[in-house]
Amino acid sequence: MKIGTILSPQLRQQMKLAPQVIQSIEILQLPMLALVEHVQQELMDNPVLEELTEDEKDEQKTDEQKTLDDELAEGKNEEDAEEDEEFKRLGEMADDWGDYFSQTNIKRSDGGEERDRKQEALENTAAGSISLQDYLLGQLSIMELDDSLMAICENMVFSINDMGYLAYPLEEIVESLEISVSIEQANKALEIVQSMEPLGVGARNLKECLLLQLDTRDPDYIIIKELISNHLEDVETKKYKLIAKKLGYNLELIKKAIEFIKTLNPKPGSLFSNERIPYVTPEVKVECVDGKYEVTLIGDHNLPRVYVSSFYKDVLVGKGYDINTRRYIRKKIESARWLIDAIEQRKGTLHKVAAKIVEMQTGFFEEGTLALRTLKMQDVADAVGIHVSTVSRAIAHKYAQTPKGIFELKYFFTGGFMNADGNMESWEATRQKLSKIVKEENKSSPLSDEEIAAKLREMGGDIARRTVTKYRRSMKIPSSRKRKEC
Predict the structure, then answer these.
(1) DSSP state of 267
(2) Which sequence ranges are marked TM in the entry (predicted)?
(3) Are 286 and 410 members of one domain?
(4) Are both 428 and 338 inside the same structural domain?
């Protein structure tokens, strides 16, 4: 017996809806920029989809969105009786097209608003990035070098890693060259590479990187060079008095030299990134109106407003087209409808989830991070009446513009612990307290992790020392020894 023969009509209908469900899930979890790209691709792939242009009037747009029920009634072909059921299903599928466009509240912009949008798009478009290697090769191209030396320099440029350091020993680079090169020629080429911008590029270690950034004309050059060459570890651990005693300089001069060293770039290649800078586009706006926090959806002004072309609807119900053409058009219209529905469903779900998050985290918007309560996705899911996985997809890569700044929606979901007052306190609030304690400590005698944990306990948090250590490291706060200032 074939599998298909044992499936009920209801089950077959559910299976047929699966692509629509999958598309809704995919649309829901897309951030706005990715959604814009997706819709633009659909406009290219689906001939029945058209974009509402800025110069169209609302009246024209409303005319474009007459329901298929009316059009089917006007253009029904009696000779194609076998297709009637399919057309009826299509009419039922699209009978709310008019409602959809009346609810989207598409407004026509005047010329000034349109120019502002274009200007905003230009100002927020990432410029094409240049790699470190391209930058160095550009400098090499204007130097007058013989062919062999140029070949060595170019090879070295491609041996420099993302941090700006030479990734391989000089001997290995020489061996990899197709031409015969002496170590003296390689050293000369290295000097050329290390003389280029950014300062410090082509270094083989941290000390060499910092030394390459020094100016011999600096009056403090000798002491700075000495500190980098022979006392870098003592500088890192802030043993300033010990350094002054060893070198015979006064403490103020040592501190002045160290402050200059802090301005040097230990990773000159970091100025050039091969990765595109991620631009954040908030999709949710939180505002306090009459003492109440309200949520609105924003950021979709670049999202194309799409609708089904009336031409193809005429093709579907008119005469003179064969059944295969009409079936193809029907499938494309169905696909377009799924896309429109998925976008609308995404808006509704995102708004409901964001509004519930704001409601549950009102304390944060009034008092800041210390008032951030513990919140799980399941809590929001239960309150809204949706599955927790839907909440997870709805907040994925979505940002909110709030009176406290721009935050990723997942920021508002945090675990915590029961404090001494019997209330739940979020880990984020604890991290803020830890940061405040370190900021206010005596810099000449910084607190140990155990002492920080004791202070947190005094503030009502039952925090273990190892937890303090973990949070301190994740927040990139140095140990007490490295925080000490002489």
Answers:
(1) -
(2) none
(3) yes
(4) no
| CATH number of residue 174's parent domain | 1.10.10.1330
Residues 424 and 477 in one domain: yes
Tell me the HSE value of 410 on the side-chain side, using a 13 A CA sphere.
8
- Give the CA distances from residue 149 to residues 25, 154, 156, 174, 202, in Å, rounded to whole numbers and listed in that order: 57, 9, 11, 12, 16
Q: Is residue 473 part of a domain?
A: yes
pLDDT, residue 11, reads: 44
Predicted local distance difference test score (pLDDT) of residue 288: 92
Quick one: pLDDT at residue 374?
83
Structure tokens at 21: 């469900």
In a domain, 440, yes or no: yes
Length in residues, the chain: 486
Round to whole Å and give the CA distance between 181 and 194: 19
- Which of 229, 231, 145 has its CA nearest to residue 188? 145
Q: Which domain holds residue 242?
A: 205-271
Question: Could you tell me the two tokens for 285?
Answer: 């706006």
**177 contacts: CB under 8 Å, gap ≥ 6:** 151, 152, 155
Mean pLDDT per 10-residue interval, the chain, length 486 residues: 45 52 86 90 91 59 47 42 47 40 36 46 49 89 88 89 89 80 90 93 94 92 92 87 89 91 90 64 92 89 86 75 84 90 93 95 85 87 92 92 91 71 66 84 85 82 78 81 73
CA angle centred on 290, ends 287 and 295, rounded to 5°: 30
User: 387 and 406 share a domain?
Assistant: yes
By the 8 A CB rule, do 410 and 436 touch? no
Burial class (CB in 10 A: 0-12, 13-18, 19+), 168: middle
Between CA 156 and CA 153 the distance in angstroms is: 5
Inter-residue contact 351 to 400 (CB < 8 Å): no
Contact of 130 with 269, CB cutoff 8 Å: no
Residue 64 identity: E
